[in-house]
Amino acid sequence: MTSRSLFNISLNDSTLSFDVDNGDTILSAALRNGIGLAYECNSGGCGNCSFELKDGVVEELWAEAPGLSDEARKKGRHLACQCAPASDLKISARVSNRFLAQFPPIRFKAPLIAKRMLTSDMAEFTFRVKEGSDFLPGQFAIFRLPGTDGYRAYSMANLTEDGQFWSFVIKRLPAGRATNFLFERLEVGAEIEFDGPYGLSYLQPAIDRDIICIGGGSGLSPLLSITRAAIRAPELKHRKIFFFYGARRSADHCLKHFLDQDPLIAERVKIIEVVSDEDPEWRGEKGLVHEVLKRQMAGDLDRYEYYVCGPKGMTDALQVFLSVENKVPTKQIHFDRFY
Fold first, then answer.
1. 118 and 15 in a common domain
2. Residues 233 and 161 placed together within one structural domain of the fold
3. Contacts for 291-300 with beta carbons within 8 Å, 24 or more apart?
4. Sign of CA dihedral 8, 9, 10, 16
5. Looking at the 3D structure of the chain, how many domains does it have?
């Protein structure tokens, strides 16, 4: 591969083009340059950033990324989030203003300033970031962690207005190299490299509907940011906000930590916590989140704006329940899926 530090990408046989710095992906470079290249997860899982390589050579950063089928690969398609150019390129890709970054992603290092355990396997990590590191409520950042293959995406839980820090609620995975590093090895004062913000499932304050947030596991993080912004948005001051949060056991619930920090959440938001496993100590709602949603929100479900983040089983079930069974328009459901 050539050692050039800058390559040019030509898009869709048009005059549209952009440069990619050494070490950057095609997707990130496009967004940094003000081009709305289609994407969703930026982690190789969704396939929305796939493109056709017309000319040139690319370096595959994750050749087995699940977002692209073998058939698509045989047809010369690649994932923009998992490719770096090894030469100047000509590509065909989906481009739309919908994907333009209001805050173009930037790369920077930031020190950990606080680590707070919330449950036995969930913690809040807070980093001091550079001035101007703005994001929209519900967006995520890419973590570049030492000793891990590839990158990891985690969503911010705070608001830009809170100050020069980014806070993340992260769930530890038993065999997860990244989360094991964060929970066991990352000490206060140590720096890690970030790239962000990214993400399309952010709060839409101009949409005049009541809001329902639905989350599970570390899906709590972006929904906290969205909820915190919604209760402070002048456009939404007369709107109702509901927050459904599911966990397996009562011990897995940690919303109380954030209610103590921000009493306005308890004042403005109706919170419905759900437990799915048998738990004799639990006195609240039991079952799966979409089942509880059905019981609690009887009526016209298409009059709400939905923000959903959580495990695939949960988001898939909610998509069927909302879109198929209750005909909620797709544009009213904002999914932040785990891939």
1. no
2. no
3. 292/244, 292/246, 293/212, 293/214, 293/244, 293/318, 293/321, 294/321, 296/242, 296/244, 296/272, 297/212, 297/242
4. negative
5. 3
CATH of the domain at 188: 2.40.30.10
Q: Is the pLDDT of residue 3 over 80?
A: no
pLDDT score for 1:
44
Q: Is the pTM of this model over 0.90?
A: yes
Q: pLDDT tens digit string along 120-179?
A: 999 999 999 988 899 999 999 999 998 777 789 999 999 998 889 999 999 999 888 999
